[in-house]
Amino acid sequence: MANGMGNITWWGFSPATNLVTAHVKEHESGAAVNILVVGAGDLRHILKTLAESWRFPTGKISIYVVENSVEVLARHMLMLSLAVEPSAIMGLAEKTELYLEIFGNSLMRHKTQEYVKEKVHQLIKFVTDSDLIEKNVSIINITALKVRERDALEVVFKFWKDCKTDSFSISKLWESRLRRYLGMRYDSRHNVYDWDYSMKLCERGASVINKMEYKQWRERGVAFEAREADYVEPNRTLASCSTVRKESGSARVWTYCGDIVTGPFVAHGIECEDNALLKLQNRAHVKTATDVSQFNVMSMFYELAHGRRYSLEADGSEDDANRSTTPTKDRNGTGDVTESSTAGKRGLCVFPILSADVQSRHGSEVCFLPLDAAEKIPHKSQYEKLFDVVYLSNSMVHKLTPDFSRVFADNAHVTIETTKFLLDVSACQGEEYLQRVTAMAKQAGCEVS
Length: 449
Description:
- This protein is of the alpha/beta class.
- It contains 17 helices and twelve strands.
- It has helices at about 20-25, 45-50, 70-85, 90-105, 110-130, 130-135, 145-160, 170-180, 190-200, 210-220, 265-270, 290-305, 320-325, 340-345, 355-360, 375, 425-445; strands at about 35-40, 60-65, 105-110, 140, 235, 240-245, 250-255, 280, 285, 365-370, 385-390, 410-415.
- The strands form four sheets. A six-stranded parallel sheet has the order 4-10-2-1-11-12, with helices on one face.
- Helix 5 (about 110-130) runs antiparallel to helix 7 (about 145-160) and helix 9 (about 190-200) crosses helix 10.
- The protein is globular.
């Protein structure tokens, strides 16, 4: 696989955006909003939109998600379940660390692996119990998924429980990807990292990403290290199933087919409402993309739970549960956080359900659509002129056709991801992409702004 972006999108290549902001400013307040997200690869836009929904007078927000792989849908379910864990069960700091670790690290702590395994049991029951699916007991709605897709989700979840290291050695897979991608440049790969960082990432506006954290991720796949801990367990949520040819025939194996060039920093780590985190001193950033990501993710989780803004100067009136996992040095030498008895005796919620006060405020749901939905929904009457906001990633923008525009509501807002942070795409190729996408949008009846 010579392409550094890979063929599966585990994280997006644009900063998290509240998708309803522009729509709400131009439409009747209090009205329900239907959003279609195609190929985002992660939950950044979804979480930010739900978290900030209290800022705008909207009705129920329904977000419909289309991805091109069941492994990405499985990750969505896990991450969304984590995002809505009640604060009485999991503190804000712990939740943020777990999210970023699962989101962007090839290796994670043993504690994080145990959390994933614990959550998998609940998710398997959720996707296999038809009664629960029909009752729609969760913010997650999978009633539209086909039986074979729910079966595939179960297979993915069961693989996550498998702790056999040899079945998914991501460190070896990462090195193999690097060797194939760099070819003869592999021995001088650190110079390649320097060039990509200085001449591409920084030039494209992502200088807040620290050179050392970027180079560490390029080398090992570990982006976010919140503390001095042992990151040794393979992150199996980054595994995808591929068919390979062998002498005895073809076989299906679990491998890593994601990004090895840009990194997961762009999604949450290069923009921030708090300008202090983007401050420059002696022409260098004071904070890193990890610091910015931690603040942004913590802010989203706080707003999702409390319906008000989070700030670094938050006083002691916050929930004690949010303070229960303040980092402390672990005496057993593992570097893991020492938790209070409240957080330690975790009684994880049976299913990813928003707490009553949050549910009443949001009244929202995230609906997962079949993998082929982008081609099918324009021809189904239930989706005709349904979506007020549509988002298409740069990997799925080819779905934007005149037929696809049938799902656009009147005066719908359509957002398309650019190739700005695809480092393998040159400036000339990026301009060509914009021209082609602009033409596609006009053919689909959009006014380009």
